[in-house]
Write a structure and sequence with these properties.
The chain is mainly β. It folds into 3 domains: 31-109, Phage tail protein beta-alpha-beta fold, CATH 3.55.50; 113-192, Carboxypeptidase-like, regulatory domain (Immunoglobulin-like, Sandwich); 318-774 and 811-885, Maltoporin, Chain A (Beta Barrel). Helices cover 7% and strands 55% of the residues. Helix 2 (46-57) runs antiparallel to helix 3 (82-89). The chain crosses the membrane at residues 12-29.
Length: 886
C-alpha cells in the first residue's frame, strides 16, 4: 500500500511538470527556418547591417519603410540564425515576418497584436512590507488577477497603452498607466487607508473581488484589529475572527475557534506557513499572536483551495511582518496585563531587513510583592518572542527566516508545614509545602526561499519546524515525625513536526493560474507520561505509565487550476493527494475541490463550492473548555482519519457602484466522519487504560445560513453578521446511540462591529455579540446510594447523580457590548496612541458554566438543589493602553 501511494504521488508530480512544460513550450516556441550565418562584426546604420547579412546568407531581406531603421546597431560575429541577427537589429521595433523560398519579408506590427507579461510585487509604502493577495485590475480590458501569499503577481496584457490598478483591503488603491512593448516589471506601493479621513475612488465602479472565486475568504488587516476594543487592552486578532459569521469562540473570553460546528483541532493555524497547535495564552483568554508582529490575517472557512489540507473546518493564515529595508521603526505598548516592544529595520539598506517583537506579562512580579509574606501563593506569567529576517538576492531570489517562541507558566504553593530534626535548632529547621504547577508553549520556525523562475513562474521552497509541549504537576508533602514523605505526579504530552514543501505559481495567460506543489511532514507524538515518585527516609521509588512516542509521516501533492471559462464564469478546480504512514497501516486520501463564480451583473455574483478534506491528527478534549492539556493524537491501526464533505452556495451583492456597501450570504452543509470522543466510562486521568481504549468513534453533521452586511469605507466602517446553524454528533457508544447537539452548537449568532472616526485624532469602536445558549450536560436524576452493609465503620448515607442525555440542556443566552476609544497624536518623529474602553459595558452576567448546588440552609443529603452559574466577567472591565510608534 505504501509503495502504491508513493507511486501515485510521483506520477501526479511528473504529470504536472510535463503539463506545465508542454504549456510553456507551446506558448513561447516558434520555428526558425532561416540559415545560420556568421557575419563580420559591424557597428553602424541598420541598412548597412542588413546588406551584410544578405551577403553572408545569400537570402533576400525585404522590409517596409515603416520599420524603425536606427543609425547605430551592432552586428555580432557569432554563429546565429539570420532571424536572430535581425532581432538584434530591430530590438526596439517589434516586427512580423514571412518566409518564401530564400526570402524573408519584414513588416512592423502594432503593439496590440502582441501580448506581454507584466509582473511585480505590491508593497505597503510606509513599511515596505509586501501585501499578500492584493488585487490587480486592468480597466481597459477588464482583465484582473490577485497576488500570491508573498505579494507577487503576474498578468498577461496586450501591447500598447495599458492601465493597471492595485488594491488591498484597508489601503487606498494605486493606478499606473504605461506603454507595453515588452515583458515589464511594475511594483505598486499602497498607502494604508485606515488612517485616511476620506478615500477618493477614481472609477465609477469598484471591480475588486469580482474576478476571484474565493468563497468564505476574509482578509483582516492588522490596523483594523488594533482599532477594536480588547480585554485588558490586549489586542487579539483571534477575537476579531470570532466576530465573523459561522465562527464562535466557545466559552466567553476564550480564544478558541469553532467554525461551522467544527472543533478547535479542525482549524489549520499557519504562522508564516508553519502549523501551530495551541494558540492560547492564559488558559486561552488571549491568543499567542502579538499584533505588533503580525501583518495581516486571511481566513478560509467555506471553499478550500487544493494547496491547503490536513484540517476539516477552516484555515487561518497569519503573516508576520518581514522587516523594513529602508528605515528603522519601532513600537512600545504598555498595558494593564502585559507590555511589549517591537523593532524593525534594515540590516543592509535596500537588501535585507529584520522584525523583532517581545511581549511579557508582569503579573508574577506584582503577585510576588503582594504575596511576599503569605504561606499560600499563586503565580502566573506568559511571554512570546517573534523574529523575522528577509534578504533579497538580486531581483529573483528572496530568503525569509522566522521564529516564534512562547511560554506559559502557572504555579501555586500552599499547606506549608515546619519540619525539624532532633534536637531542634535554627540550623535544622525547614519547611515543606504542597505545590501545583503547569506550563505549556510553542516553538515554531520556518526557512523560505522565493525564486522567480520567469515572469510567469514563481516558486517557493519552505522548511518548517513546530514543537508544542505541555505539563501539569502535583506535589504533596507530609511530615511523619521528623521525616518528610512526598508524592509527585506529572503529566507531559506534546507534538513535534518537521516539514518541507515546494509550491509553484504558474501564469500561462491573463485569465489562467496554475498552482501545484508537494510536501512532507514528520510528526512526533507523545500522548502522555505519568511519573509517580514516593520519597521516604529510606529512599525513593519512581514509576512511569504510558510512555509511548509515536511517529507518523504525512505526504501530499496538489494541483490547482483557476481560469475564466467565459467572461462571467470563473472556475477553480483542483485535487489534493495525501498519504499518512503510522504504525503498520498506511492511510491515503484523494480530495477533489471545485468552486465556481458567476457574475450575474456588474454588482451581483453567485458562487458555489465543494470540498473534501481529511485530517490525520486529532485533539481529544477532557472538558468543555479548550485547555492546553488537551491531547494531540495521530491516526493508528484502530483510529481512522477524520473526513469531511462540505457544499456551499452563496451570493455577493455590491449595493452601490462604489462598493462601499456589500451584502453576502452563504448556505452550507458539512458532513463529518470518524470523530473522536472519550467514552462515558473513562477520562483524561484514567491511567489503567491505554489511550486508544479511552476513545470512541462517531460522526457529525452541520448545516446553516450566514449573512453579512458590511460598510468598508468612510468615517463609519463595520459589519452586521447573522448565523443560523445546527450541528449534531452521533456515537454508537454514547447517549444510547442517539444523536446529540455538538459541543458548541449555537442556533443563533449575531455580531455587530463598528468603528467611527470622530475627528482626525479620535475614533471609537463598538462590538456587540449575541448568541443563543450552548449545550451542556447536567444530571437529571438523583438517587439514594448508601454504603455497603459490610463497610467497617459508621454507615454513611449518600446520593448519586445521573445525566440521562449528553448536552441535553442549554445555558442561558449570551450577549455583551464592548467599547473602546483611541486618541492619536502625531508628532514629527513619532505617534502616540492612548486606548481606553470597557469590556461588557452593561455588566451582563453571561454563563461560563452552570452546576447544581444545595442551598446552604439545607441539611446534608437533602434532595433539594439549585441550578447556579459562574460568570467570568459579571461586571464592566475597564482597560487602558499606551502605545508609542516611532
Amino acid at each position: 500500500m505504501r509503495l502504491n501511494i508513493v507511486h501515485i504521488i510521483r506520477n501526479l508530480i511528473c504529470g504536472v511538470v510535463l503539463y506545465i512544460g508542454a504549456t510553456s513550450f507551446s506558448l513561447f516556441a516558434q520555428d526558425d527556418m532561416t540559415p545560420v550565418v556568421k557575419p563580420e562584426a559591424f557597428r553602424g546604420h541598420a541598412r548597412t547591417a542588413i546588406s551584410i547579412l544578405e551577403q553572408s546568407s545569400g537570402w533576400i531581406i525585404s522590409y517596409s519603410n515603416r520599420m524603425c531603421l536606427e543609425s547605430e546597431v551592432i552586428l555580432k560575429n557569432e554563429n546565429r540564425t539570420l532571424l536572430q541577427h535581425l532581432e538584434d537589429i530591430f530590438a526596439h521595433c517589434s516586427f512580423s515576418y514571412v518566409i518564401r523560398d530564400n526570402k524573408i519579408i519584414l513588416r512592423p506590427v502594432d503593439p496590440s497584436e502582441y501580448s506581454y507579461t507584466v509582473s511585480g510585487f505590491t508593497y505597503d509604502i510606509s513599511s515596505g512590507e509586501t501585501l499578500p493577495g492584493a488585487n490587480i485590475f486592468n480597466y481597459i480590458s477588464g482583465i484582473g488577477t490577485a497576488g500570491n501569499n508573498y505579494g507577487f503577481y503576474s498578468i498577461t496584457l496586450p501591447g500598447g497603452s495599458n492601465v493597471l490598478t492595485a488594491s488591498f483591503v484597508g489601503y487606498s488603491s494605486e493606478t499606473k498607466s504605461f506603454e507595453l512593448r515588452s515583458d515589464t516589471v511594475i511594483n505598486f506601493n499602497l498607502k494604508g487607508s485606515l488612517q485616511l479621513a476620506q478615500i477618493n475612488i477614481e472609477s465609477d465602479f469598484v471591480h475588486e473581488g469580482l474576478y476571484t472565486t474565493n468563497m468564505g475568504t476574509t482578509i483582516i488587516p492588522i490596523e483594523e484589529i488594533k482599532q477594536t476594543p480588547a480585554l485588558l487592552g490586549e489586542t487579539d486578532l483571534v477575537k476579531n475572527i470570532q466576530m465573523l459569521p459561522g465562527v464562535q469562540g466557545g466559552s466567553e473570553g476564550f480564544s478558541g475557534l469553532y467554525v461551522r460546528g467544527g472543533g478547535p483541532d479542525q482549524n489549520l493555524i499557519l504562522l508564516d506557513d508553519v502549523p501551530v497547535y495551541n494558540i492560547g495564552h492564559l488558559l486561552g483568554f488571549f491568543s499567542i499572536f502579538n499584533a505588533d508582529a503580525v501583518k495581516n490575517v486571511t481566513v478560509h472557512k467555506s471553499q478550500f483551495p487544493a494547496r491547503y489540507g490536513g484540517r476539516l473546518s477552516s484555515v487561518v493564515d497569519v503573516r508576520m511582518l518581514e522587516g523594513n529595508k529602508d528605515q528603522v521603526k519601532g513600537n512600545l505598548n504598555l498595558g494593564i496585563l502585559s507590555s511589549g516592544a517591537s523593532l524593525n529595520g534594515p540590516v543592509k539598506k535596500g537588501k535585507s531587513g529584520f522584525a523583532l517583537s517581545f511581549r511579557r506579562t508582569y503579573h508574577d512580579f506584582i503577585a510576588g510583592l503582594v504575596q511576599r509574606d503569605n504561606e499560600e501563593s499563586t503565580n502566573y506569567y506568559f511571554y512570546d518572542l517573534n523574529a523575522k529576517y528577509n534578504h533579497s538576492i538580486g531581483d529573483k531570489h528572496r530568503i525569509y527566516f522566522n521564529v516564534y517562541w512562547g511560554r506559559d507558566k502557572y504555579i501555586t504553593t500552599y499547606n506549608y508545614q515546619n519540619i525539624a530534626s532532633e534536637p531542634a535548632t535554627e540550623n535544622n529547621q525547614a519547611t515543606i509545602n504542597d505545590e501545583n504547577n503547569a506550563g505549556w508553549g510553542n516553538f515554531v520556525s520556518g526557512l523560505r526561499w522565493n525564486y522567480l523562475i520567469s515572469p510567469k513562474l514563481f516558486s517557493n521552497l519552505t522548511v518548517t519546524y513546530s514543537d508544542y509541549r505541555f505539563f501539569i504537576g502535583v506535589e504533596r508533602s507530609n511530615r511523619a515525625a521528623t521525616n518528610r514523605e512526598s508524592f509527585e505526579q506529572r503529566y507531559l504530552s506534546g507534538i513535534r513536526d518537521l516539514g518541507v514543501k515546494a509550491d509553484f505559481d504558474f501564469y500561462p495567460s491573463y485569465n489562467h493560474l496554475i498552482k501545484f506543489g508537494a510536501g512532507a511532514i514528520r510528526h512526533y507524538f507523545n500522548p502522555g507520561i505519568d511519573v509517580v515518585q514516593r520519597n521516604a527516609s529510606g529512599g525513593s521509588v519512581s514509576s512511569e505509565f504510558g510512555e509511548d512516542n509515536i511517529v507518523g509521516g504525512e505526504f501530499h501533492a496538489y494541483l490547482e487550476d483557476e481560469w475564466d471559462l467565459t467572461r462571467k464564469l470563473r472556475v477553480n478546480t483542483g485535487v489534493r493527494a495525501v498519504a499518512f504512514t503510522g504504525e503498520s497501516k498506511a492511510f491515503y486520501s484523494v480530495e477533489p475541490r471545485l468552486s465556481l463564480r458567476y457574475d450575474i451583473t456588474r454588482s451581483i455574483s453567485a458562487r458555489a463550492a465543494y470540498s473534501e478534506m481529511s485530517q490525520f491528527i486529532h485533539l481529544v478534549s477532557s472538558s468543555n473548555v479548550n485547555l492546553p492539556t488537551d491531547l494531540w493524537l495521530p491516526v493508528t491501526d484502530r483510529i481512522p482519519p477524520m473526513r469531511s464533505r462540505q457544499t456551499n452556495i452563496g451570493i455577493d451583492i455590491k449595493i452601490d457602484n462604489k462598493g462601499v456597501f456589500r451584502f453576502t450570504s452563504d448556505y452550507y452543509i458539512k458532513e463529518l466522519d470518524n470523530l473522536l470522543h472519550y467514552k462515558e466510562s473513562t477520562g483524561f486521568f484514567d491511567y489503567s487504560t491505554y489511550w486508544e481504549d479511552k476513545l470512541t468513534i462517531g460522526s457529525g453533521k452541520s448545516y446553516g445560513m450566514e449573512f453579512l452586511f458590511s460598510k468598508t469605507q468612510g468615517d463609519l466602517k463595520g459589519w452586521i453578521g447573522y448565523t443560523l446553524a445546527r450541528t449534531t454528533n452521533k456515537f454508537d457508544e454514547l447517549n444510547n446511540g442517539k444523536s446529540f447537539p455538538a459541543r458548541f452548537d449555537r442556533r443563533h449568532d449575531v455580531t455587530i462591529t463598528a468603528n467611527y472616526r470622530l475627528t482626525e485624532k479620535t475614533d471609537v469602536g463598538l462590538m456587540w455579540q449575541y448568541g443563543s445558549g450552548i449545550p451542556v450536560t447536567l444530571p437529571s436524576e438523583k438517587y439514594f446510594a448508601p454504603n455497603f452493609p459490610y463497610y467497617n465503620g459508621d454507615l454513611n448515607i449518600g446520593y448519586s447523580e445521573n445525566a440521562v442525555a449528553i448536552n441535553g440542556f442549554r445555558m442561558p443566552d449570551f450577549h455583551r457590548l464592548d467599547i473602546g476609544f483611541n486618541f492619536t497624536k502625531v508628532r514629527k518623529r513619532s505617534t502616540r496612541i492612548w486606548s481606553v474602553g470597557a469590556i461588557n459595558l452593561y455588566g451582563r452576567q453571561n454563563p461560563f458554566l452552570v452546576y447544581f448546588a444545595s442551598e446552604s440552609a439545607d441539611e446534608p443529603g437533602s434532595s433539594s438543589r439549585v441550578l447556579k452559574q459562574l460568570s467570568l466577567f459579571p461586571f464592566p472591565i475597564p482597560y487602558v493602553k499606551y502605545s508609542l510608534q516611532f
